[in-house]
Amino acid sequence: MRDQYYEQLDAIVDDLVSLTGSVRKAVAESTRALLEADGNVAEAVIAGDKDIDEATEMIEERALLLLATQQPVATDLRQLVATLRMLTDLQRMGDLSVHVAKVARRRMPDSAVPVKLHPTIAAMASVADSMIDSASRIVANRDVKAAAELEAEDDEMDKLRRELLRSVLNVEWQHGVEPAIDLALLGRYYERIGDHAVSMARRVVYLVTGQGQLT
Amino acid sequence: MRDQYYEQLDAIVDDLVSLTGSVRKAVAESTRALLEADGNVAEAVIAGDKDIDEATEMIEERALLLLATQQPVATDLRQLVATLRMLTDLQRMGDLSVHVAKVARRRMPDSAVPVKLHPTIAAMASVADSMIDSASRIVANRDVKAAAELEAEDDEMDKLRRELLRSVLNVEWQHGVEPAIDLALLGRYYERIGDHAVSMARRVVYLVTGQGQLT
């Protein structure tokens, strides 16, 4: 009975890690749509979000079923509750990559990002990618030490967002108000993607050490 | 035993409704800080967020304790899981009101909102206020019909946000890029506050009718 329980719990963690991979791909593809002004890629990210939503709901249903049938207590209970929370994080990260793809689509056939700022956006996307990868490994291996690195990456993300805003607010900015707003919102979307990765990691740290915040 | 369980569950719902009141106040106060350029009010919202976080964690701990000790199944289990999710919504709404207060603080002694756009921001805040109030009543009374009204208010919020963006992108806009970005972000913050109210309502609808999405 208990063995079967742990098998099911492990299967849920595996699926959570696999879903994290899908979300990571959505973020990378939405960035590609943005920087290469590729409408097909943007549409694929937008259409693909329903797969992420469906996967989320399927894992969620199984976690709830396990809660109801096995009635775990203590750490096992907390792990399932943490899983439910991480699913919410992943679903939001998927939504945020849809927002990025929609900004890309709105400005077709141009890129929403002036060429000079491509490196900054590419750097934010790369930090986000690395943060999602770290979160995934932390979930898979309960690697609490990696969580500290993730916080450092989050600082890097904040730095990049400030850099982006400085460029947009510079007196030499010549692209007008609309691209400035797009970039401010894009900066916010990538920052939030990073925040959700940090939040996933913190949930694992809390599970393993009992330290830190639950939410 | 079961009676005591329902008493505890009711107490948790009462506390959730009371927390919703605190969040509603934070949103209203952050808007006041913004429109009246009142630094003291902005600081109070920012400092007060830790009370919202603490209340969230306290209710969460009690919900987890009830899960662990009473091991509810079926609807009772789903209600506790929905409660945990609604707590995440409320905490995020508190964070978003802090974001609004920080925009207000950054532009002191001026208002971050040009006088001409005060009515639009006031209208967004008023719709947000009404949406949080609806969500609170839906949670308290399981009033599924009110959830439909909430969706209509969400449409109104979207309309106001588009109106705000149109003003900022109008050729007659004379306030420069920085206030434009502030307003685009403020629009996003109020929209997200509304989204979280909708998400709370949907969770109650799902609980009562079994229809709709869990997340």
Automatic annotation (TrEMBL), chains A, B:
InterPro entries: PhoU (IPR028366), PhoU-like_sf (IPR038078), PhoU_dom (IPR026022). The keyword Transport applies. It is found in: Cytoplasm. It holds the Pfam family PhoU. Keywords: Cytoplasm, Phosphate transport, Transport. Its main location: cytoplasm. Gene3D superfamilies: Phosphate transport system protein phou homolog 2, domain 2. It comes from the Bacteria. Residues 21-103, 122-204 form the PhoU domain. PANTHER family: PHOSPHATE-SPECIFIC TRANSPORT SYSTEM ACCESSORY PROTEIN PHOU (PTHR42930:SF3). Plays a role in the regulation of phosphate uptake. Homodimer. Belongs to the PhoU family. This is Phosphate-specific transport system accessory protein PhoU. It comes from Aeromicrobium panaciterrae.
